[in-house]
Specification:
Length: 146
């Protein structure tokens, strides 16, 4: 049985552990600091500025999506930004439901847009998945080490 639900503060570590050993996490330019992650996400959840959803199969968390909301710096339009989205390959069939849960939250919070970012190391088919869900490629992200 699958179960998509909001992440509680007590399960932030469990939710992000699903993502930690993935190629996507290993490709991040900076290592994940779990103490920082827990502190920040606890604050975001308390302030109702962030949300996480998990999908659990047989009571085991196998997928997570999390994101924040805030005003666009130029227009003031409320925007939801996906920060992490991962589902174990054996359970990818729940991806659309997980994304839909995040989109519903964003809409309930008055967001006009959802922005997601595909990192350089993504599973095959991620771009096509987002296009099927109505997303369009909009920007390119550049990064420079200082």
């Amino acid at each position: 049985m699958n179960n998509i639900r909001k992440v509680t503060k007590g399960e932030i570590i469990k939710a992000f552990n699903v993502f930690l050993d993935t190629d996507q996490a290993k490709a991040l330019p900076d290592p994940i600091d779990m103490d920082h992650t827990v502190t920040l996400w606890t604050q975001l959840l308390d302030a109702d500025l962030g949300v996480g959803f998990v999908v659990a199969v047989d009571e085991q968390i196998v997928g997570v999506i999390c994101g924040t909301r805030g005003p666009d710096v130029f227009s003031g339009t409320m925007v939801a930004r996906e920060n992490a989205f991962y589902i174990h390959p054996d359970h990818r069939k729940y991806g659309a439901e997980l994304l839909h849960a995040f989109e519903n939250w964003a809409e309930e919070k008055g967001c006009k847009h959802v922005v997601t970012c595909a990192c350089s190391v993504m599973p095959k088919g991620v771009g096509a998945f987002f296009k099927r869900k109505g997303y369009e490629v909009q920007d390119t992200l550049y990064r420079k080490e200082l």
